Structures are given as structure tokens and as C-alpha cells.
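stage 2 :: seqdesign
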């Protein structure tokens, strides 16, 4: 409600992805209430912090997911690599649901854990309703991050989802745990340098406008 009030006061806030208690019996009504606001664009349960890795698949979540779909909201999947196989099951259960994977599913860049994450992300990318945010990489690499550490992970996401289903995200202010906003912007420019101007424009804003229905 607070974020939507800020959107009412500031035209530059084009959309809000909010939070609803998916476990509440009242979730469908609450989702309908939020969806009535024109700047309400999606919902993001904090799955990364939920101890049960199967949480998203419990039948008790069905009403909330159905309400999200019925009201045309995007499901932001704030997940970790251990959730990706379950996320694929969820996507197949609700094929009409638009899904955006947040922060590239937070791969463990610091320890170089690539293969399992890469395989699961490629599998999800085969489902055309799934997109991915290119964000959060510097914090997963840690304070010793550099572009060379990020490049294989960014390249993989861009290869399997394509430039038409990748959304750049600042992850500000969380990115400042490892890098300044300007440093992440500079790293982004280097990570995307092989793409032409049209693809960079899509990744840096156009895809977000289309996928979230921003005006």
C-alpha cells in the first residue's frame, strides 16, 4: 500500500511489484484489491527466506496463484538455485502465468557453482512465459567481484532466455553491499557490449515495459 501511494504521488514510478501473504485464506480478496490499482503489476513472495523448499507447490497456494493469474499480475520468483526444479513444476502447473525469475536465481558465483544452476535455468528458459532479471550478481560474487567472474553467468542467462526475455535490474540499494550503483551500471555496459543498440535498449527497459505492462 505504501509503495502504491508513492506511485500515486510520483509519475516516474511506473509499476509496483508487491507482497501478499499467499498462506492467508484472504489472499484472493487481497490480490483482487491490489490489482485494482493501475500501477500494481506483480507479486513477489519471499521464497528465498521460506525454509520449506516445496512451499510454492503446496495445494494451499493454489487460490493465490489463481487470483494472481486472473488479475493479470506477474509472478516474481525470488528463488535460489535449490528452488529451480520446483519452479519448473509450478510453471507447468500454471502455463498461463507470466513469471520473472529475480536476480538470476542468485547463483553462487563466489564459489563458482555453475553447472547445476545453468542446467536448471536453461530448462526454465524453454518455457516461453518465463523471463529473468539480470540483477543481483555482484552481491552473489561478493566484494571481490569483477566482470570476469560475472560474465559466464550473465552470458548464460542471455543465451538461454535471449535478449527479448531478460530484464536489467539495479538491485539498489542491496547492490551496495558489494558495489555502488554506478559500478554495477559500468559492469552492465561491459556485460552487454556484444549486443546491438536495439537489444541493449530492450534489456535495459523495453522488456520490463512489455512484460509488466508499464505505460
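stage 2 :: out
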Amino acid at each position: 500500500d505504501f509503495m502504491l501511494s508513492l506511485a500515486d504521488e510520483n509519475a516516474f514510478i511506473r509499476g509496483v511489484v508487491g507482497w501478499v501473504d499467499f498462506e492467508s485464506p484472504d489472499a484472493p480478496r487481497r490480490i483482487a484489491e491490489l490489482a485494482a490499482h493501475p500501477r500494481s503489476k506483480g507479486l513477489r513472495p519471499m521464497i528465498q527466506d521460506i525454509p520449506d523448499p516445496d512451499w510454492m507447490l503446496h495445494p494451499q497456494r493454489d487460490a493465490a496463484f489463481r487470483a494472481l493469474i486472473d488479475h493479470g499480475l506477474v509472478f516474481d520468483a525470488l528463488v535460489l538455485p535449490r528452488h529451480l526444479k520446483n519452479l519448473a513444476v509450478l510453471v507447468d502447473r500454471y502455463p498461463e502465468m507470466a513469471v520473472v525469475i529475480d536476480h538470476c536465481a542468485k547463483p553462487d558465483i563466489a564459489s563458482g557453482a555453475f553447472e547445476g544452476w545453468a542446467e536448471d535455468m536453461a530448462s526454465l528458459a524453454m518455457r516461453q512465459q518465463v523471463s529473468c532479471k539480470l540483477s543481483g550478481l555482484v552481491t552473489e560474487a561478493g566484494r571481490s567481484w569483477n566482470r570476469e567472474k560475472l560474465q559466464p553467468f550473465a552470458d548464460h542467462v542471455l543465451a538461454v532466455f535471449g535478449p527479448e526475455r531478460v530484464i536489467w535490474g539495479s538491485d539498489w540499494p542491496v547492490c551496495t553491499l558489494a558495489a555502488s550503483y554506478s559500478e554495477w551500471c559500468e559492469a552492465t555496459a561491459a556485460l552487454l557490449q556484444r549486443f546491438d543498440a536495439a537489444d541493449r535498449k530492450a534489456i535495459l527497459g523495453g522488456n520490463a515495459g512489455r512484460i509488466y505492462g508499464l505505460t
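stage 3 :: structure notes
- The chain has a mean pLDDT of 97.
- The longest helix spans residues 147-161.
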